Amino acid sequence: MQPRMVQRAAFSVMGVVGHFRSAAEDFGPLWSEYMTFHEQIEALSVGGGHYGVYLGADHAKPLDYLAGMAVHDAMGAPEGVEVREVPEALYAVFACSFQDIGPTYGYIWGEWLGSSAYEQDRRKLGFDYFPPGTTDGDSPMEVWFPVSKRDEE
Question: Minimal CA–CA distance to 42: which of 69, 81, 11, 13?
């Protein structure tokens, strides 16, 4: 499972934020809360896909997670939602199915990082991208993992 490398410009995501003890927690209830705002946010969105943005670099520690959609700006944001900017970054992009998101992160942390020419860029935000039409466990999605070139020693 080799990623494609993508330099992505900064963008904004509008949605709801939840506080979690680690990335291993169930984000389902947060996505359900997000769906109460979906139509309002979708009217302001660009691209139609959904984003799960990790607002913390260490997935084993407490973190905030944003469930939402990319938007041009915060104008017209419904009350109760937040807008966060995802800064420009270089990403290793791993394609997988929704049901394989856990094993994909296991591969990234357990195998790929140790053997690649890259390391996690902890100054940047990682996210999961769910294209339009993601409806079940077999649906394709992508893990966008922020990286920088490993220093040569």
Answer: 69
Count of domains forming the chain: 1
Token duo for residue 44: 């302001």
The domain spanning residue 103 has which CATH number? 3.20.80.10
Q: What are phi and psi of 136, to 5 degrees?
A: -150, -175
pTM for the whole structure: 0.91
Q: What are the average pLDDT values for consecutive 10-residue runs of the chain, which has 153 residues?
A: 95 95 85 94 92 82 92 86 96 95 94 95 95 80 96 65
**HSE on the CB side for 42, CA within 13 Å?**
10
Domain membership of residue 101 as a residue range:
4-149
Q: What b-and-e string marks burial along 71-99, b requiring 16 or more CB atoms within 10 Å of the CB?
A: beeeeebeeebebbebeebbbbebebeee
Distance CA 9, CA 107 (A): 26
d(CA 92, CA 54): 15
**Token digits of residue 59:** 């997935």
